[in-house]
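Try it yourself: sequence plus magnesium ion, in.
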Amino acid sequence: VAPAGAGSESPAPPVCVLVLGMAGSGKTTLVQRLTAHLHSQNSPPYVINLDPAVHELPFPANIDIRDTVKYKEVMKQYGLGPNGGIVTSLNLFATRFDQVMKFIEKRQNTSQYVLIDTPGQIEVFTWSASGTIITEALASTFPSVVVYVMDTSRSTSPITFMSNMLYACSILYKTKLPFILAMNKTDIIDHSFAVEWMQDFEIFQDALNQETTYVSNLTRSMSLVLDEFYSSLKVVGVSAVLGTGLDEFFVKVSEAVDEYEREY
Ligand code: GDP
Ligand code: MG
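Structure, out:
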């Protein structure tokens, strides 16, 4: 993709980077770091916050769901708990997403990337009608990629790792978009152990042999199934806190965009 605004020919459309992952995996911190990185490259992104319940955003958002829906008010008004409040806020916002699309379209010439931070709890976005509406609106208009953020430091047990990968796999099938696995928090632990597990079934089996539970038998079979998922997966190790791995991250994003353009 050529940089937006280069030359007089019509610029390439911005790439939408949808950041998903378990609560605490580091989505918000990664969006902050990517934003700073792009600014330093003179390519400021268009940034959208879709988390209605975040207290403080560490990055300046061009569009912030909190400006449109007040999730505490939504809780009171509809008599909901925190989860219901977040889901309903996202639903209310999704009904106006056509306006957000217009804003993004206006920014075509100035931003090469649109970064989208999603609610802390992943299922609020991935298993809701509003998440689907928003994803489809973006992906039908702009080249779009999903970044699944994994907390590498919390995935060192083979069984936890596997559950995380099964979740990632389910999101791939649900969104059907080019997919990047960002192994985050590599400042705490290097992600090479996880890459090895994905590349070499035997090494993963050895790690599993340390576990003797019933679940590990199931995991053994599952890992064969996931082999197919791994073989097409783009993986990159990053530290959102330190800002390492970001150049490789953007290489993976362009590869994913090429895939998007072949398939859509
Ligand atoms: P989110 O719920 O996915 O948006 O996660 P946050 O971005 O809010 O991060 C959750 C916690 O993980 C915070 O305490 C962050 O400081 C921390 N965190 C995020 N990225 C990293 C990282 O790369 N390394 C380390 N050590 N901590 C991180
Ligand atoms: Mg967050």
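One thing you can check immediately is this: The longest strand covers residues 144-151.
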